[in-house]
Design a protein that fits this description.
This protein is of the alpha/beta class and 89 residues long. The chain is built from 4 helices and 4 strands, in the order βααβββαα. The model has no long low-confidence stretch (mean pLDDT 93).
Length: 89
Amino acid sequence: MAKVTFASDEDVYHLLDPDCIEQQLSHINVNFIFSCLNSDNWTDDNWIGADGTPYHIIKLPYDLVKTMNKEQVRALMLEKALERLQQAA
């Protein structure tokens, strides 16, 4: 089962929808951490947990997300998650 968490600034918090990604990728054992902060401190990363579960940090472009609606952000999150899964395969 996919698990999704995120870190975001307050002004974009309402645009991020972890439930959508969890539902779309429920058949996969993976964890995603989406970052959408007005900061350069977060970067994309991957690792395998002690239990063998893959983890992926995906940085969303803050300035772009601010201009999008919730449906557009959902599509972007799914696109980035699928890209990351494809890269890890």
